[in-house]
Amino acid sequence: MSGGMLPGIERRLRQLHSPSIQYFVSVAEAGSFRGAARKLNIASSAINRHVLLLEKELGFGLFERRGRELELTSAGQIILQHCIETVRDFEDVIEQLDALRDLRKGIVRVAVSESFASEIAPEICAEFSAIYPGIRVHVRVSESGKVIDFTSRDECDVGIAFGHTSGTGRELARYKLPIGAVVGARHPLTGRESISIRECFDYPLVIPDKALSIRRLLDEAVDLFRTSPEGNIEATSPRLMLGIARMNRHIVFQSKLGLANDLKNSSLHFIPLTDKNLKPDQAVLMASPRSQNRFAAIEFSTFFAKALERELSGP
């Protein structure tokens, strides 16, 4: 079509970049007009007026008003998701323009499981930030299954977790992690060079919850964890389990991942397990489908992979 834009496109572009869209997103994030008003430092009546105009223009209600609480309608959810995707697309464009200027800028969204959050991820993120001060790193901590889902759905750019990938996420690297018995410095087993799972049952245990990948591997190797003797503890948190191990009474089953400082200062000891049927735990580094063209995501995932290799190749 000659003579300029397609019919209606200019009007739609004005809608997309209008203040009403910004106010709508702020209300959706805050959950109320007052919360959005405080964030934007604008009168809540003005925000309400803009949202009403947007609803009139679109021909749909965007919020269900239930007293002081607001919930997105189906139409509101569609608009909000579009806004999120539009912002991400714009961030991609900005990164590509910065690349043309040879600037090292951008944002990378990272999701890690708890085992990486206490020791490994903080060190890697701090080192990366020092080398790439122009790249903003946003980190969220969650259980492994959710980390994999976040990455597959493009809610984060890079994910590191335990287990098997699913969905559309791209697997960048996989690491095999032998499982051992972890005990405190004054535990009776300190000094042992190896031990079987069955021998460990002579002492109080911290048993991984069934939701954890390491528990599934233990159950596949031996049929001992179905009943929990008195004095044992069952937990979902690796950090909690290690904290209990430091009290020198219980045995914890984990890999060496994230234990470098504890092993170095001898606050914890790792004893290899001799059970031949016990498979190693596996950690996976993955990236979202759209991250393959983003400078920040590529640089961070490469940096993380190299740092993790160094961590795992240590003593």
Automatic annotation (TrEMBL):
Residues 21-73 form the HTH lysR-type domain. Pfam families: HTH_1 (PF00126), LysR_substrate (PF03466). Gene3D superfamilies: 3.40.190.290, Winged helix-like DNA-binding domain superfamily/Winged helix DNA-binding domain. InterPro entries: HTH-type_LysR_regulators, LysR_HTH_N, LysR_subst-bd, WH-like_DNA-bd_sf, WH_DNA-bd_sf. This is DNA-binding transcriptional regulator, LysR family. GO terms for molecular function: DNA binding; DNA-binding transcription factor activity. It comes from the Bacteria. Keywords: DNA-binding, Transcription, Transcription regulation. The keyword DNA-binding applies. Belongs to the LysR transcriptional regulatory family. GO terms for cellular component: cytosol. The keyword Transcription regulation applies.
